[in-house]
Amino acid sequence: MTRRELMKVAGAAALAGVPLAGCRTRPVSASVDLTDPAWIDPSALFLRPGSERGHVNHGWLDARHSFSFASYRDPRHMGWGPLRVINEDRIAGGRGFGWHPHESMEILTWIIDGALEHRDSMGNGSVIRPGEIQYMSAGSGVRHSEFNALEAEPTHLLQIWIQPSFWGGEPRYDQRQTSMAQRREGWTLLASGAQDTDAIHIRQDAQLLTAAPGADGELSWTVPEGRRTWVQVIRGEVAVQGLPLVGGDAVGTHRVAGELLVQGRSADAEVMLFDLPG
Predict the structure, then answer these.
(1) Is the CA virtual torsion 269, 22, 40, 244 positive or negative?
(2) How far is 128 from 22, CA to CA, in rounded Å?
(3) Which of 221, 197, 231 is nearest to 48 (CA)?
(4) Among residues 265, 78, 271, which one has the least CA distance to residue 187?
(5) 169 neighbors 142 (Cβ within 8 angstroms)
């Protein structure tokens, strides 16, 4: 799906960044002190249950769509600010996406399990594995292919599209490796619009971070005034502001400043956090 197709579907309201509608919150844990003014009120969180995402199964591809994508259309779920796509894909062994075009979109791929072979019209070719983030800025236009590099096992990944702050530009590519030890210690910055970091530099005023809090780790994130946040559970069980979440679930905040608390509730708990313009 190209950026032009997404824009046709989203319309002006989505591009302006309207909040998601129709989301529900779950009961708040008694351990959350709602009298503390530094906490974001859980009622201000937009919950996107993983079980309610768009779903397609083509046999070789089993995909869940957090936002409208391809044949899945839901006007309530068009994106979150410039965050346009979070697809959770499981690709069968040896299968994948043949050569296809993109333009004016920041595309990031996070490998959960397995291995993905990437090739593009810029001449890049690599196999990315768990703990690696891959970046392709489609810019003025690029073609690429993605295949499961394993013949006998599925590859499990998240593909993320972020709308850039400007159209066009020279296409570019990058990838970075992170360790589980890093992610256990706290938030690990994967990508940022700032140029003074060691993370991948993207063409948007946004940050992408990940962490693996495990069964009893706690993380906090300061949500600045006027910003958006989206927390996607990669796998395992966590609580965000006391709301219990499992792999595939997500919560978003929209222009509500405060401290966001993420608590790990299973040994395999992993999350991804997006800091986005409001």
Answers:
(1) negative
(2) 36
(3) 231
(4) 271
(5) no
Report the C-alpha gap between 201 and 198 in whole angstroms: 8
- If one counts every other C-beta atom within 10 angstroms of the C-beta of residue 187, the result is 18
Could you tell me which CATH class the domain 3-277 is placed in? Answer: mainly beta
Cross-strand partners of 269: none
d(CA 199, CA 188) in angstroms, rounded, equals 9
**10-23: buried (b, 16+ CB within 10 Å) or exposed (e) per residue?**
beeebbebbebeeb
CA distances in angstroms from 185 to 1, 113, 171, listed in the order given:
36, 21, 33
Element spanning 277, H or E: strand 270-277
| CB-CB contact of 77 with 111 (8 Å) | no
CA dihedral (63, 69, 72, 76) positive or negative: positive
Is 80 exceeded by the pLDDT of residue 56?
Answer: yes
Q: What is the pLDDT of residues 166-196, one digit of tens each?
A: 999 999 999 999 999 999 999 999 999 998 8
Calculate what percentage of the chain has a pLDDT beyond 70.
86
> Rounded mean pLDDT of 5-13?
30
Average pLDDT over every residue of 229-250: 97
CA distance 162 to 144: 17
Structural domain spans, the chain: 3-277
Do 217 and 263 contact (CB within 8 A), yes or no? yes
pTM of the model: 0.86
